[in-house]
C-alpha cells in the first residue's frame, strides 16, 4: 500500500480488504470456490480518486464496495453482515416510516422522506448529478444525488418520495445523500413546504461596508450593486437608489451575517429611502447614512425573524428586545454563520482577571486568545457600560483612554491613530454616558503586574435599556461559564486552574449582585 495514503483512508482500505478476505474464506470453508480475488491496489486507487473529487469518505467506501460486489456478481442476500454494512445495505427499517427533515440530527442513518425540490444548484463536481434544497412541512435540507446512482432527474417544484437516502453531516450541517441504494419516485402526496422562517436573538456588533444608501443596476431587472458606477454585467450605469443594512448579529458564542432590505431598514431605523437620499445630498456623501445607521444599531439587542439565503440571514421583521434566550444555535441558521470570532460578554471582574494569553497554532496570523478564569478562550469582547472618564494620554500623538464601568467595576479602553472612529468617539464623548464597545482584549505589563484593556473596534453611545439588556445577558452567560468550569466542562478549564487557581469568588459575587439588582454604579 502506498505510504502517501492518508492514515484514515489506509484504515478504510484495510477494512475493505479484511472483510472481503473473510467473505472468501467463508466460501472456501463451505466447500465452494472463492467468488473473486479483491484487487487491493484497485480499491486504493478508486478511493483516492473519489476523495480527490471531494466525495465524502463514507460514501466513497459504499460506492467502491458496491461496485466490487457487482463485479463479483453478488446479490445482497449473498453478503455477510459486515460486507452488507460496508456496502450500506444494513440498518434499514423493516417498515418504511417517513422522516421529517427537521428531525435529521445524526449522520450515516438510512431514512425515507417525502419532500419537494425547492431549489437546484449547479453541481461543482462531475461526480454529482444534482444538488439542491429539499423542503417539507418541518423545514429545509440540502440534498445530493451522486452520478453513480443512475437515478431519475429531479425537477424544481416537484414532490418526490425518497426511499433509502443516507444522512450526512459536514461541520455541523446535515444533508441527505441519494446513492445506488436509493429509489426515487414522484408522488401525489401533498407537502406544504415550510417557508423557512426562523427567529433568533442577538446584538448588532458590526455594521459592515455596503450598508446605507446604495445604487443598483436596474437594467433588465438586474439588481447588482454598482461599484464606482459600474455593473459587473452591464457596465457603466446611473443606477437606482436602494437602502439596506449588512450587519453582524452576535449572541456571544456565534455570529451571523444579516441583511436588511429597504423595508426592514426603515422599520428598524426610521430612515426611509427618501430620507437617506436627502441626507446624502445635503452632506454630498452617502457615508452619512451608514454612519447614522451604525449610531442607531450598534450594541442594541434584537429579535430577528427571517430566512436564510446563501450565506445571509434575510431579515423580515426585527424588534429590540431584552430577551437572553433564543440565540443562534438553530440548525436552520448554520449556512449564515460566520467565521468571525464571537464577541464574548464579560463583566469587568472576569475581563480584568484574563491576564494570560495563548495561540492555538504557530501560524503568524493565528488569533490571540485570552484565557479567562472560567476556562474559555476569548478574542473579541462586547461590553456595555457607563463611560465615566476620558483623557488624551498620548505623548507625540493623540491616544485616548476611556474608563467604563461594566456593571460595578471598571475596564479601560485605549484608541489611537489605528482606531480613528473609536478615538473620535472618546474625544467627543460627554461623560457620564452609556456606551457599547466591541473590541479585542489586549494585555500590557505595568511594573510587576499584567493589566488588561480593550482595543475598541467601535464605541457607540446607547441608552439605559441597552445597558440593562447587556447586564442581564452577561450575567446569564457568566453563570453558565462558572457552572461549566465547576462541572469540568470548560474548554480550557485545566489550563485556567493551573494559571489562576481559584479566582471565581469575585465573579460569583458580581453575578449575585446583578441578579439581586445591586449593580448600580456607585462611582458615577
From TrEMBL:
Keyword field contains Acetylation: no
SUPFAM superfamilies: Nucleic acid-binding proteins
Swiss-Prot/TrEMBL keywords: DNA-binding
Keyword Nucleus: no
Cited InterPro entries: NA-bd_OB-fold (IPR012340), SOSS-B (IPR051231)
Protein origin, superkingdom: Archaea
Gene3D superfamilies linked: Nucleic acid-binding proteins (2.40.50.140)
Name of the featured protein: Replication factor A
Taxonomic source organism: Haloarcula onubensis
Amino acid at each position: 500500500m502506498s505510504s502517501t495514503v492518508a492514515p484514515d483512508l489506509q484504515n478504510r482500505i484495510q477494512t475493505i480488504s479484511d472483510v472481503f478476505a473473510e467473505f472468501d474464506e467463508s466460501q472456501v470453508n463451505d466447500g465452494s470456490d472463492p467468488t473473486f480475488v479483491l484487487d487491493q491496489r484497485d480499491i486504493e486507487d478508486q478511493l483516492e480518486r473519489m476523495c480527490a473529487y471531494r466525495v465524502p469518505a463514507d460514501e466513497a467506501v459504499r460506492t467502491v464496495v458496491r461496485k466490487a460486489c457487482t463485479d463479483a456478481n453478488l446479490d445482497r442476500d449473498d453478503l455477510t453482515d459486515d460486507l452488507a454494512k460496508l456496502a450500506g445495505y444494513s440498518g434499514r427499517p423493516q417498515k418504511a416510516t417517513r422522516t421529517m427533515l427537521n428531525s435529521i440530527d445524526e449522520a450515516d442513518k438510512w431514512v425515507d422522506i417525502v419532500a419537494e425540490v425547492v431549489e437546484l444548484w449547479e453541481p461543482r463536481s462531475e461526480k454529482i448529478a444534482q444538488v439542491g434544497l429539499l423542503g417539507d412541512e418541518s423545514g429545509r435540507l440540502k440534498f445530493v444525488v451522486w452520478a453513480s446512482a443512475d437515478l431519475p432527474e429531479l425537477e424544481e417544484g416537484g414532490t418526490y418520495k425518497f426511499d433509502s437516502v443516507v444522512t450526512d453531516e459536514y461541520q455541523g450541517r446535515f444533508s441527505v445523500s441519494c446513492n445506488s441504494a436509493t429509489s426515487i419516485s414522484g408522488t401525489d402526496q401533498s407537502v406544504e413546504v415550510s417557508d423557512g422562517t426562523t427567529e433568533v436573538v442577538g446584538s448588532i456588533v458590526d455594521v459592515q461596508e455596503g450598508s446605507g444608501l446604495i445604487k443598483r443596476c436596474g437594467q433588465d431587472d438586474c439588481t447588482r450593486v454598482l461599484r464606482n458606477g459600474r455593473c459587473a454585467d452591464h457596465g457603466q450605469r446611473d443606477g437606482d437608489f436602494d437602502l439596506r443594512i449588512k450587519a453582524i448579529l452576535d449572541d456571544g458564542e456565534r455570529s451571523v451575517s444579516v441583511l436588511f432590505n429597504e423595508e426592514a431598514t426603515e422599520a428598524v431605523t426610521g430612515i426611509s429611502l427618501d430620507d437617506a437620499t436627502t441626507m446624502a445630498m445635503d452632506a454630498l456623501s452617502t457615508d452619512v447614512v451608514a454612519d447614522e445607521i451604525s449610531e442607531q444599531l450598534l450594541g442594541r439587542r434584537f429579535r430577528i425573524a427571517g430566512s436564510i439565503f446563501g450565506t445571509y440571514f434575510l431579515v423580515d421583521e426585527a424588534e429590540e428586545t431584552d430577551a437572553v434566550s433564543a440565540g443562534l444555535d438553530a440548525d436552520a441558521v448554520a449556512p449564515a454563520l460566520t467565521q468571525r470570532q464571537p464577541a464574548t460578554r464579560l463583566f469587568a471582574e472576569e475581563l480584568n482577571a484574563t491576564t494570560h494569553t495563548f495561540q492555538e497554532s504557530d501560524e503568524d496570523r493565528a488569533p490571540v486568545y485570552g484565557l479567562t478564569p472560567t476556562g474559555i478562550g476569548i478574542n473579541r469582547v462586547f461590553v456595555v457600560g457607563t463611560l465615566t472618564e476620558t483623557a488624551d494620554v498620548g505623548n507625540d500623538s493623540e491616544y485616548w483612554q476611556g474608563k467604563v464601568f461594566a456593571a460595578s467595576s471598571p475596564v479601560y479602553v485605549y484608541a489611537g491613530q489605528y482606531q480613528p472612529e473609536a478615538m473620535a468617539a472618546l474625544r467627543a464623548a460627554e461623560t457620564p454616558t452609556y456606551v457599547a464597545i466591541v473590541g479585542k482584549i489586549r494585555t500590557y505589563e505595568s511594573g510587576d503586574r499584567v493589566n488588561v484593556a480593550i482595543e475598541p473596534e467601535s464605541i457607540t453611545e446607547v441608552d439605559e435599556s441597552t445597558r440593562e439588556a447587556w447586564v442581564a445577558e452577561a450575567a446569564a452567560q457568566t453563570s453558565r461559564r462558572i457552572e461549566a468550569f465547576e462541572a469540568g466542562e470548560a474548554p480550557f478549564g485545566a489550563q485556567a486552574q493551573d494559571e489562576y487557581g481559584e479566582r471565581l469568588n469575585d465573579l460569583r459575587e458580581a453575578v449575585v449582585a446583578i441578579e439581586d439588582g445591586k449593580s448600580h454604579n456607585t462611582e458615577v
